[in-house]
């Protein structure tokens, strides 16, 4: 068995590299509070948060996790001040541009999930480019949820299925879960095994409602900008202690 000793002393334990979660989802929460504690504007928290995302994505890839999905901007986040929304969009643009330059070399796939039609045109075009590059690759996949809401995703999927029924492609009675999943923005992805929420809140906040049906949840008080590789180790170790029963015994 391959083991990896977690580095943090107070969260001592061992990550079993042969039983890693295949897919980790993270609600990157606490950026605003992290900044406020330091007397900085909230946008400073998002900037550090974007760096932490880079570090954790690279670490997931190096460990051997296959998929990482993060919540970057919800369908409700448009209510935030324009400066904050613009900063997050700017960070996403910068990340997409970097990815276009490096993803083929690093064999990293990148997919934006959510209703991208309301994003600035430039972001939509960049996301389409990274999707096209991703199709030529087979390595670790990072998914960034933007203008994403779990309920919105389900309603859109229901609408699309209803339209296919009206067009005569399907009849409602024949719908199965596996077919419905093809209408979700996560189509083709395995469900998350582990959902991590830093930032102290213990709720799902409209994230991957369908996909997290059997995910193991790990909550931590650490604010996202303070989240380290050791915190990921600790969450994986906690995941590996759980006994997943999927409704069985
Ligand atoms: C939640 O913290 C965080 C967000 C709504 C934005 C997350 C976005 C980023 C980290 C930038 C995305 C960039 C990349 C490259 C993926 P909050 O602002 O709600 O924090 P609070 O609860 O402390 O106010």
Describe the structure.
The chain is of the alpha/beta class and 249 residues long. Helix content is 41%, strand content 16%. It has 7 helices and 8 strands, in the order βββααβαβαβααββα. It has a 6-stranded parallel beta sheet, with helices on both faces. Strands 1-2 form a two-stranded antiparallel ribbon. α2 packs parallel to α3 and α3 runs parallel beside α4. The longest helix is centred in the middle third of the chain and has 25 residues. It is globular. The chain starts with a strand and ends in an 8-residue tail after the last helix. The structure holds farnesyl diphosphate.
Tags for this model:
41% helix, 249 residues
| Major sheet details | 6 strands, parallel
Residue runs with pLDDT of under 50 for 5 or more positions: none
Bound ligand species: farnesyl diphosphate
User: Taking Cα atoms only, what radius of gyration do you get, to the nearest Å?
Assistant: 19 Å
- How widely separated are the two ends? 26 Å
How much of the residues is beta strand, in percent?
15-25%
User: Could you estimate the helical fraction of the residues in percent?
Assistant: 40-55%
Based on secondary structure, the structural category is alpha/beta
Which shape, going by the Cα principal axes?
globular
Walk me through the topology.
Blueprint: E1 3-5, E2 14-16, E3 23-27, H1 31-37, H2 42-63, E4 67-74, H3 82-106, E5 109-113, H4 121-134, E6 141-148, H5 150-166, H6 177-181, E7 194-197, E8 216-219, H7 229-241
Parallel strand pairs: 3-4, 3-7, 4-6, 5-6, 7-8
Antiparallel strand pairs: 1-2
């Amino acid at each position: 068995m391959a083991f990896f000793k977690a580095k943090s002393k107070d969260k001592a334990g061992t990550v079993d590299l042969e039983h890693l979660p295949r897919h980790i989802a993270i609600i990157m929460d606490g950026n605003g509070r992290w900044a406020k504690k330091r007397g900085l504007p909230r946008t400073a928290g998002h900037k550090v948060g974007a760096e932490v995302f880079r570090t954790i994505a690279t670490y997931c890839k190096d460990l051997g996790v296959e998929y990482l999905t993060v919540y970057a901007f919800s369908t409700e986040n448009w209510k935030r001040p324009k400066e904050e929304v613009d900063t997050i969009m700017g960070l996403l643009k910068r990340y997409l541009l970097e990815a276009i330059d490096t993803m083929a070399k690093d064999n990293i796939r990148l997919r934006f999930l959510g209703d991208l039609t309301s994003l600035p045109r430039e972001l939509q075009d960049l996301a389409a480019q990274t999707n096209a590059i991703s199709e030529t690759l087979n390595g670790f996949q990072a998914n960034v949820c933007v203008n994403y809401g779990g309920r919105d995703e389900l309603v859109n999927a229901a609408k699309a299925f209803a339209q296919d029924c009206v067009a005569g492609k399907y009849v409602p009675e024949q719908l199965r879960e596996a077919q419905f999943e093809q209408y979700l923005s996560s189509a083709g992805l395995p469900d998350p095994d582990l959902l991590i929420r830093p930032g102290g809140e213990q709720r799902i906040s409209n994230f991957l409602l369908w996909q997290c049906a059997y995910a193991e949840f790990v909550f931590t008080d650490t604010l996202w900008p303070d989240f380290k590789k050791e915190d990921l180790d600790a969450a994986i170790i906690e995941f590996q202690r759980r006994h997943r029963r999927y409704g069985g015994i």
